[in-house]
Write a structure and sequence with these properties.
This protein has 2 helices and 30 strands. It is about 5% helix and about 60% strand. The chain has a 16-stranded antiparallel β-barrel. Strands 1, 2, 3, 4, 5, 6, 7, 8, 9, 10, 11, 12 and 13 form a 13-stranded antiparallel β-sheet that branches. By secondary structure, it is mainly beta. The radius of gyration is 28 Å and the shape is elongated. The two termini are about 45 Å apart.
């Protein structure tokens, strides 16, 4: 006969949910930016990636429902501690010592967490349980499911450990020789983490020790990044935001693979080092089969509103123009204007720019006034920006004064279709500037694009650019195909007017 025993622990209760509330989408390394403004639709892929990696777990949903149906599993008054509930085919309890023995289909429940085993011993006065054999653990906050053996846990101290463990925490799948659990962190020894849910992950981060702070960050020591069975990157100490802290950040993976018919295959990986609280150094290593190494080196100081960086290296714009900065310094200041929907930005760049035989000390001041997104309806959002810049070039002692403004409208037409239209004006063009970098060869531009979800794993986009000063002549037309390969994404772009191809792989689950 299956038995149940309710015992009180010394730990206080908290009513915690297994469901993740809707939040803003994560930034994706599949995002693309071109002069057709296709980046206005990047949010579609980012929301998809977020939904995929934060999909509610059926087991945890069921667990929450079961616990809510049994009022004695949780405290009726949150001011009182939650009970520890033992269930099993055979239960014994010593009222003097607090010792508990449970055998046969054992379940131990506390708050919104539960462990399953065949044999469990424990002590209610000391608040701990021990499982000598196999154990399965499910808990709602932080979200975790784990399988292992030789486990122990103290509900009073909220500390425990499991050997030969495998499972997931939040959206991080993990495996290790041992996992130690503490109130604010989980430590995995000699194991790995990945966001690829495959039985044999396509890629993973392994380390001697991995500290996971849910919805904050992870720290990996002697970290190795693997693609299949090949180490592609190593770092002595690696830190990355995870969970809620990763919203809006770049992908944690430092290695990127791209193909461009103009540049060939690109292998890119990023290295950064925190010098002090507000100072970081970094290197973006870029190898192109058609151009060899095109690296960028930099140091940045940053505060809430200010940043100052010094960079040296090669840069490519959306029109496949290259430039070398040897070096350059960039200062930026951004602040919201009080009691208004506008943000003000001032930036200054001063450095030596070089392209072919042209070498010039380039000094550019720019001010921008950006309106925060304006919701015209549930489906449509308007973005706007106006700015002014003045640029001096030592090469020919020229001074270019530029006025620009931008209006962009994005609409969700239905569940499968979204589109955008934008108008841009810029006084500066390739015709009146020393460098072509970052500029079009005309002033008035209209862009428009349409996205359609063919299948749950396939999306296509058509993006256009028109010269509004030349009877809307088509300047660019790009075709995109986005495909979900379960553990990574692929983006294929064909640029009709340039007859060029671009393929990008995004390991969104890392």
């Amino acid at each position: 006969m299956h038995k149940k025993l309710y015992l009180m622990s010394a730990a206080s209760a908290a009513m915690l949910s297994c469901l993740i509330p809707p939040q803003a989408a994560l930034a994706s390394n599949m995002s693309d930016s071109t002069n057709t403004d296709v980046q206005l639709l990047n949010y579609i892929q980012e929301e998809k990636n977020y939904a995929r990696t934060h999909r509610p777990n059926p087991e945890l949903i069921k667990l929450r429902q079961q616990i809510n149906e049994e009022k004695f599993i949780r405290p009726l008054n949150p001011a009182y501690p939650a009970p520890i509930v033992f269930e099993g085919d055979d239960l014994s309890y010593d009222t003097n010592t607090g010792a508990v023995l449970a055998k046969g289909k054992v379940r131990v429940t506390h708050d919104y967490s539960r462990l399953y085993a065949q044999d469990v011993s424990g002590n209610t006065k000391k608040g701990y349980v021990e499982i000598p054999g196999k154990v399965h653990v499910a808990q709602c906050m932080p979200q975790m499911i784990a399988d292992g053996r030789a486990a122990s846990y103290n509900y009073n101290e909220k500390e425990g450990q499991i050997k030969d463990v495998k499972g997931f925490i939040g959206n991080q799948h993990f495996k290790g020789e041992q996992a130690n659990f503490y109130p604010t962190e989980t430590i995995i020894y000699n194991g790995y983490v990945t966001r690829c849910p495959a039985k044999k992950p396509d890629y993973r981060l392994s380390a001697d020790k991995i500290e996971i702070y849910p919805d904050s960050h992870l720290v990996a020591y002697n970290a190795k990044f693997w693609i299949k069975n090949v180490v592609v990157y190593q770092k002595k100490r690696y830190i990355a935001p995870i969970g809620k802290a990763a919203i809006g950040s770049k992908s944690a993976i430092p290695v990127h693979l791209n193909f461009n018919s103009n540049d060939g295959m690109q292998i890119r990986y990023e290295y950064s080092h925190n010098i002090s609280k507000n100072i970081d150094s970094y290197v973006h290593f870029n190898y192109y089969t058609k151009r060899d190494l095109r690296n960028v080196y930099g140091v940045v100081w940053h505060d809430k509103a200010y940043s100052l960086r010094t960079e040296y290296g090669y840069y490519e714009d959306n029109n496949d123009n290259w430039i070398k900065k040897i070096p350059t310094a960039i200062f930026s200041y951004q602040m919201p204007i009080p009691k208004s929907p506008f943000d003000f930005t001032y930036s200054l760049e001063y450095g030596r720019w070089k392209n072919g035989e042209i070498s010039s000390w380039h000094r550019e001041n720019a001010i921008d006034l950006t309106r925060r997104p304006l919701k015209l309806s549930k489906a449509s959002t308007l973005y706007s920006d106006v700015g002014y810049s003045w640029t001096h070039e030592s090469y020919n002692e020229s001074m270019q004064r530029n006025f620009h403004y931008d209006l962009s409208l994005v609409s969700n037409i239905n569940a499968k279709m979204a589109g955008y239209m934008a108008y841009h004006y810029s006084r500066s063009t390739t015709a009146n500037s020393l460098f072509d970098f970052g500029l079009d060869n005309y002033s008035k531009k209209v862009t428009a694009g349409l996205s359609y979800q063919l299948t749950p794993k396939d999306r296509i986009v058509i993006a256009n650019e028109f010269d509004a000063g030349d009877a809307m002549r088509t300047k660019d037309r790009d075709y995109y195909w986005y495909h979900d390969f379960h553990c990574f994404d692929m983006m294929v772009r064909y640029r009709e007017k340039r007859h060029s191809w671009h393929v990008k792989f995004g390991l969104v689950h890392w």
